[in-house]
Amino acid sequence: MSCSTPTTTSGPCVQCIHPLEYIFELAHQGTLGVNNKSLFEEGLDRILDKGIVTTNCNMCCPSCEGIYALASVETMMKLYEGLGFTISAAVPASPQFSGDYNYYINNDSPCCSNVFASIETWLDKYASEIGLTPLAAVPALNSTFTPSLSSKELMTCCNGFNECMDDLICWVTAGRFAAESIDRLQDKGVIEYGGIYNNCSKTDNLVLCKLVDLLDKYLGETANINRRSYIVDRILDKGITISCSDNGEIVIGSVETWLKYGEQMGLTESAAVPALGQTTTTTTVL
After folding, report:
1. What is the pTM of this model?
2. Mean pLDDT for each 10-residue chunk of the chain (286 residues)?
3. Is 162 a domain residue?
4. Could you give the dihedral angle defined by the CA atoms of residues 177, 180, 181 and 182, in that order, rounded to the nearest 10 degrees?
5. Whose C-alpha in 72, 180, 225, 232 is 20 to 30 A from the C-alpha of 83?
């Protein structure tokens, strides 16, 4: 069995390896010679559940606040709570993310969040949690609610997300009208926070489009509509989280797995509370 090495050069610039492409290829390598696509999905599950911390020599990094995440609304709210973006996680304020590496392009990406969901899902599971509705604003007024990201960064922005959602819907429905599949996506909701910056092309920030391309490459030929919906459900329910650290590592995992890492590294709300009777020293890792 021979393993392919991703191309790392393209024209005058250095072409970094996309983290999604990296984990999909790992899952593919684990099923070579086995004619069973469900094993590929299980392999992807295991990679996300275990998570990966690896030396970052040539991986692409997030473009917003040092972290990228894609998940269903419910799963993303768990990440947002851990990072201190929600009202329930308002005290104490979580550590600020920072990062000074070549891939960081915050100036070109002033807003980082995009959402696709039914009105009910948006109101009940998203807007109320981050203080966008009057009902949610009442407890916020009586607390020290200070999101660690500015409202500008939590605003939605026009960066091609809608076009990528169209591609995802088209893939899930196999190019046919399938009302039930679309309903499921609306009710589940999709949130994408940030992008992945490629030195050679800013269009590669559209990670959701990259996900659709990879789904089609590795699973599109054999998956019917029901299977496609199931695969996307699994990915969104687990979530995909990617972060780069200043000490030269990249971390990839499901939302739950990344939160365990973030807590140990002092990046989440629960880790922000100092141990009783101890003096703490803050170390910036992102």
Report:
1. 0.79
2. 38 74 90 66 92 91 84 95 74 39 37 87 88 57 46 59 92 88 94 79 71 91 84 95 89 96 83 41 40
3. yes
4. 70
5. 232
